[in-house]
UniProtKB/TrEMBL annotation:
Taxonomic lineage from the root: Bacteria, Pseudomonadati, Acidobacteriota, Terriglobia, Terriglobales
Keywords for this protein: NAD, Oxidoreductase
Name the UniProt record assigns to this protein: 3-hydroxyacyl-CoA dehydrogenase NAD-binding domain-containing protein
Domain Enoyl-CoA hydratase/isomerase: 512-645
Catalyses which reaction(s): a (3S)-3-hydroxyacyl-CoA + NAD(+) = a 3-oxoacyl-CoA + NADH + H(+)
Length: 825
């Protein structure tokens, strides 16, 4: 069959063989997309052939139960489990006959995999695609026992755990794999599963685990050589480098020390068939001893760290703020001791540098004779640079695949070649040469014609080129259709207008983006001003563009209003300033709603408080699937003051069947819908996915969800363009909203009183909840009284200002700013 016709195939049904932790979570994530999936596993040993189906499917049933309870959640919403059909290998292999993709995910044992694949062959459709989820077993060895007509449809698909959250998928073709089948799975996993797909060669541990295991092993080696502690290494290998804040060892506990050991030993077992100059970086002896003791990390309750118990010297194993104390392993004695926060002056200075790319040279090129941090960073990073440079083209065809694999698989902000560029390739290499360190041949090739692995080049579609060590020349960074970024567009088109908090960018085709880029995208005066001025009917941008997208490219869409700015104003008792700030925020959200051009908000990550209010007022929302959305103001002793309550009232009224005249025709009964929204706001409920945000009422049924974060901007632009092309009608402010009124308000207050009497909430929680009820019900008015949107906004502002004057609210705000956590007072 021609490649193009096969590549256009759709994956309409899948099967996962193996219901262990990885297999079951892969099945759950496929189910998240609405694609039916068959999940099979073995019959428990010793189970009779005539035993009830429930007993024969016991392992899979247990896996489904674990998925529903898992934290972090495997399903976007628990109901997605309905897309999974369960069974076992002995009775139900026939269920794979109508599956387009069958993914084997049993134990990392070559004989077990080969045995299962032999049984599977007789049930496969001729054009079905068969893949193996292995973290390092040679694909060629697994494929060796397959018949010739099946080998073109077989290859490796290495997911990272947990599959819902870890974006990397390494595809490892075999020698005879049909490129069309690879294209089909690549497209499905990119667009439907949200994966960053990289192509790996069939080498030990593939790409990410090869580089990542070296990096972790090298950190451990340097710790031992330099006499550092576990918590010191975690501090050095965390967010300062743009790596996960967990650092090396906390990450090891989360992943599982046995998993880390398995990957390391898998490489050791296969090292003989490759050339690797650092094959000596293996497991430290103390880790072997930990595995013997079953100190495997979080899943066994202890690993490199463990929680302190009541006999640790402090009452109940808690600190002064009630948090669990942690003990850390002394790797030299294998005893646990209280964890101590490390102090490195270099890290304290680095905190003042916001950009990771700017921090790296500061940390790397410091005087190692005067800084413990620099003494650690120099060998850690330069050896990583050399090791990575020597791996291309061994493990993959380009440096781009290596960088993408480390960013998506290990959550590094920059890949190793991007870090090398940030450090300065020539400067770093000359210092290495002077110290007698080995220099990779590919680095010498690079420095013969250039200064960096990557360069900006507006002449290529992606706007960027990379150095190819094989050809010794620069090539365009591949651009996947539908994937783009604001950074790329800004390099090509520049910025229309900007201030410290936000920018306007021309996305092309008559659509502009308003990019949020303040610290944590907290919503301060600068963002409020730019959005309002841009979207008001008289603005130049409304004349120049047909539609707008509000989004960003930081880790989170917005953490909400700038609480520090608010607290300082409250402490100065500048109440007119607080009132003006709330009015301005309300004016901004109303401007979004009543803009003559459609505004699409593309939220992602944390979208809290004011970020949610911005989203609620848009013509449409195009969220990323991983959306943690909520009106969380109650957590700091406030209520939504930017129109959030108003919009949730309108959503309650739109609930349809729950709206009906009461028996006397005096009003509208919307109690059930309003009660749900009241609880959502009063409890500061945050969604665990975009699907749940829809269930909570923050998203509408018509709002589309993007699963691949890299496609969010393109999808939002297309949505905005489509709404404009359909003939967008600007909404008109409502003046006919039937207020729930005093009867519903009394009922909600009774519920709040009951919660207080049961001591489920505090006195201040009670005060906040009553204000929320007041704003949602339209105040103390007769049920059914017609009120305007402005009336509801005025009530929100009244409640917000009143609560700002409360000492306990001010305490909550201060505590949250200090700890990032809510205070119950």
């Amino acid at each position: 069959m021609p490649e193009s016709s096969v590549a256009a195939r759709q994956i309409r049904k899948a099967a996962v063989l193996g219901a262990g932790t990885m297999g079951s979570r892969i099945a759950a994530h496929i189910a998240n997309t609405g694609v039916p999936v068959v999940l099979l596993d073995i019959v428990p040993p010793g189970t009779a052939s005539d035993a009830p189906k429930q007993e024969r499917n016991k392992l899979v049933l247990a896996a489904i139960d674990a998925l529903k309870k898992s934290k972090p959640a495997a399903f976007y919403v628990p109901d997605n489990a309905r897309f999974i059909t369960i069974g076992n290998f002995e009775d139900d292999l026939r269920l794979i006959a109508d599956c387009d993709w069958i993914l084997e995910a049993v134990a990392e044992n070559l004989d077990i995999k080969r045995s299962l694949l032999f049984k599977v062959q007789q049930h496969l459709r001729a054009d079905a695609i068969l893949t193996t989820n292995t973290s390092g077993l040679p694909i060629a060895d697994i494929a060796a026992s397959l018949p010739g007509d099946l080998k073109p449809h077989f290859f490796g698909t290495h997911f990272f755990n947990p599959p819902r959250y870890m974006r990397l998928l390494e595809i490892v073709p075999g020698a005879e794999t049909d490129p069309a089948d690879v294209a089909t799975i690549t497209r499905f996993c990119d667009q439907r599963l949200g994966k960053t797909v990289v192509r790996s060669h069939d080498t030990p541990n593939f790409i990410a685990n090869r580089i990542g295991t070296f990096s972790m092993g090298n950190a451990i080696r340097l710790m031992q050589a330099q006499g550092l502690s576990i918590e010191e290494v975690d501090a050095l290998t965390g967010s300062a480098l743009g790596w996960p804040r967990t650092g090396t060892f906390r990450l090891g506990d989360m992943v599982g020390i046995d998993v880390f050991a398995h990957v390391a030993k898998n490489f050791e077992a296969q090292a003989a068939r490759i050339k690797d100059e650092r094959a000596d970086v293996g497991l430290a002896p103390f880790i072997d001893k930990m595995i013997e003791k079953r100190w495997l990390g979080d899943k066994t309750g202890q690993g490199f760290y463990k929680k302190a118990s009541g006999d640790s010297g402090k009452s109940g194993g808690k600190d002064s703020e009630g948090r669990d104390l942690r003990l850390v392993l002394d790797w030299q004695t294998l005893d646990y001791r209280p964890s101590v926060r490390p102090k490195f002056p270099a890290l304290d200075m680095a905190k003042n540098v916001e950009s990771t790319a700017a921090r790296i040279p500061q940390l790397l090129h410091a005087d190692a004779s005067k800084s413990k941090a620099a003494a650690f960073y120099w060998p850690l990073l330069t050896e990583l640079f050399t090791y990575s440079s020597n791996r291309v083209p061994e493990i993959t065809d380009s440096i781009v695949e290596v960088d993408e694999a480390m960013k998506a698989g290990f959550n590094w902000e920059l890949g190793p070649f991007e870090m090398f560029d940030a450090a300065g390739v020539r400067t770093t290499t000359e210092k290495m040469r002077a110290a007698g360190a080995p220099i990779a041949a590919s680095v010498e090739k690079l420095l013969a014609i250039g200064e960096s692995w990557y360069k900006d080049d507006p002449a290529v579609p992606s706007g960027r080129v990379f150095f190819d060590p094989v050809t010794g020349s620069y090539k365009p960074v591949p651009m996947v259709e539908g994937v783009t970024s604001l950074a790329t567009i800004k390099k090509a088109r520049g910025v229309v207008r900007k201030n410290p908090g936000a920018s306007i960018i021309d996305l092309g085709q008559g659509v502009a983006a308003i990019e949020l880029h303040s610290k944590m995208n907290a919503l301060g005066d600068d963002i409020v001003s730019l959005i309002t001025q841009t979207l008001k009917p008289s603005s130049q941008q409304v004349t120049d563009f047909d539609a707008f997208v509000i989004t960003g490219e930081s880790a989170n869409f917005s953490v909400g209003a700038n609480l520090m700015q608010l607290l300082l104003t409250i402490q100065d008792e500048e109440w007119d300033e607080v009132d003006l700030a709330v009015r301005n925020f309300q004016n901004m959200t109303q401007t979004i709603k009543f803009c003559p051009r459609p505004v699409v908000v593309a939220p992602y990550g944390m979208c809290l408080g004011g970020g949610t209010e911005i989203s609620l007022h848009a013509a449409a929302r195009q969220p990323h699937a991983e959306l943690y959305m909520g009106l969380v103001e109650a957590g700091v002793g406030l209520i939504p003051g930017g129109g959030g309550c108003k919009e949730m009232v309108l959503r309650s009224i739109e609930a349809g069947s729950s709206i009906r005249p009461d028996a006397r025709g005096e009003g509208v009964e919307i109690f059930e819908a309003l009660k749900k929204n009241f609880e959502t706001i009063a409890k500061a409920t945050v969604s665990t996915s975009a699907a749940e945000a829809r269930n909570l009422g923050f998203l509408r049924p018509s709002d589309n969800i993007t699963i691949n974060r890299d496609r969010l901007l393109t999808d939002a632009r297309l949505r905005a363009r489509a709404i404009a092309d359909a003939g967008y009608a600007t909404p008109i402010p409502r003046t006919d909203i039937p207020a729930p009124g005093e009867s519903v308000l009394a009922t909600l207050k009774l519920a709040v009183w009951t919660m207080r009497e049961g001591q489920y909430i505090s006195d201040h929680d009670t005060k906040v909840a009553n204000w929320i009820a007041y704003a949602l019900c339209g105040g103390n008015v007769t049920p059914g009284t017609l009120v305007s949107e402005q009336h509801l906004l005025d009530l929100e502002r009244e409640a917000f200002l009143s609560l700002c004057g409360e000492k306990k609210t001010q305490e909550r705000i201060a505590f949250t700013l200090k700890t990032g956590k809510p205070l119950r007072n």
